[in-house]
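Why does residue order matter? Because the sequence determines the fold. Keep that principle in mind as you read this record.
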Amino acid sequence: ILPGNPLMVFRDDMTIKAVASLEPMEKKYPFFEAGREQMEMVNAMLQDAQFRRNRMIRSCYWGPDHITGFRSLNWNVIKNGATTYSLSVMEDTRPLTEADKDLLEILGSHIQFMLYSGEIAVGRKDESLQKILSSILSDRTLDYMEASRTLAECGWQREDSYLCLVFRLTYFDQNNLPVTSICNYMMEQFSGCCSFIFQEDIVNFFDLDLGALNRSQVETILKPFIRDSYLKAGYSRIVQGHMNIRRQYVQAVLALEVGMRKFPYQWIHHFNQIVFPYMMEQITRKLPAKMLCHEGVLKLSEHDREHGTQYLQTLRTYLDRHQNAVQSAKDLYIHRSTFLYRMEKIREILDSDLEDNEEILYLSLSLRLLEQEQ
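Structure:
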């Protein structure tokens, strides 16, 4: 089979486990080289209805060439009723025939035995890194000093800078895109990245110093990949050292969850963008906004309702403009004397001269709490 016909073993996520070929295939077919083009082809295959039907076939079958660009004979390796690997012979320089099916099935039975007997099992160098990072996220009783030593042994030093990125599959991809393919792509794309599955999300930690990258470079590389793979992404802040790794993960998850609520049409969310909305939500966890905000703000709201005034809007503009009367009047499209009259009435209702810094902060928060509740 091999002369002119490369033999491949694919994992269940369609990443390549092994290739047997007389010549390197990367230059001729980009699919064989880890990177963006390979990931795009994997996505296309996993979303193809015919491809998904083929994965249920229990005999040798012809693979469609409309995605890969070449015909192939395929045989699924079955374990516990599910396809776990696929054996594929590519039609390259020698045309494949029906007679090759018998050879492939015989070869497939031997490869299946070797795959599950451990003779060609391949361990990843980053398994220990994935294990310790998963433990940091899940085990509240973990010895952090010991975890830090383990990370340092893996090359992730205490003085390095770290970034956490969490992917969440959209509804479209939950049944189409195996998450292990994304993990493999991330670790092949970034030398300082560890990617693993945790609580149904894909967690990615970057040692920016080890990978010789900065945040902007990571985001630029991943932006089209996130969009094309229909992922939602949440970025943490950059933190130095090992002691805040779990908190970085929490930041990235909050960026996703709050960002998806506040900005549902965005693919990518950053923790810095959702900190204030998150803080405002936490304030009202036990008491509603009306029971927390400044009583004077409630009086202004009631006055606006009863008399058709715009005192709340006027106060909000005044505070947003750092108590600049001229700019506030301009923003409200009213004459300065009209604005000053409104502010006099507002001070009377608030029973305040609006000079105390803490009261001004309280008033600003109260106005935003009412907006959030509405």
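The CA atoms of residues 211 and 349 lie 59 Å apart.
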